[in-house]
Write a structure and sequence with these properties.
Elements (H helix, E strand, L loop, with lengths): L1 H7 L3 H20 L12 E8 L9 H7 E12 L4 E10 L5 H11 L5 E5 L8
Antiparallel strand pairs: 1-3, 1-4, 2-3
């Protein structure tokens, strides 16, 4: 906008200077990877919502052993005014192509409630 005003007022040299400075600034910003997650791995965060009547301790073990190379419970949280639990797991898939089949099998066990499989960034508050 500043270069447009400069051009409109007849200050062509200032307009070109502003454009060159902004171009250089944008080029520098695009090459600096500030927001890249260096702590992301091939691990994923699995969040499963289950009804409170379901015993969550070992209900998914057979599915996990079939589709995952490793899994670790990260946390449990109540949701839906205490009528449901949201389980969080750090998981690593055996085969990434089987992700849909894995989620479909989990949906059968949790009564088609919410399931999320997200990139896992190793930070403290994953819940």
């Amino acid at each position: 906008m500043g270069s447009g005003i400069a051009f409109g007022m007849g200050y062509v040299a200032y307009g070109v200077l502003i454009l060159l400075c902004l171009s250089l600034l944008f080029a520098l910003i695009s090459n600096v990877h500030i927001f890249e997650h260096k702590t992301m791995t091939q691990d994923k965060l699995l969040r499963i919502t289950i009804p409170e009547s379901l015993d969550y301790y070992d209900v998914f073990n057979d599915t996990f052993s079939h589709y995952l190379t490793s899994y670790e419970s990260v946390g449990v949280k109540t949701t839906g005014m205490g009528s449901m639990f949201r389980l969080s797991f750090k998981v690593r898939m055996k085969n990434a192509a089987e992700e849909k089949a894995f989620i479909d099998e989990l949906r059968i066990k949790n009564g088609n409630l919410e399931i999320a499989l997200l990139p896992y960034a190793d930070v403290q508050n994953q819940l």
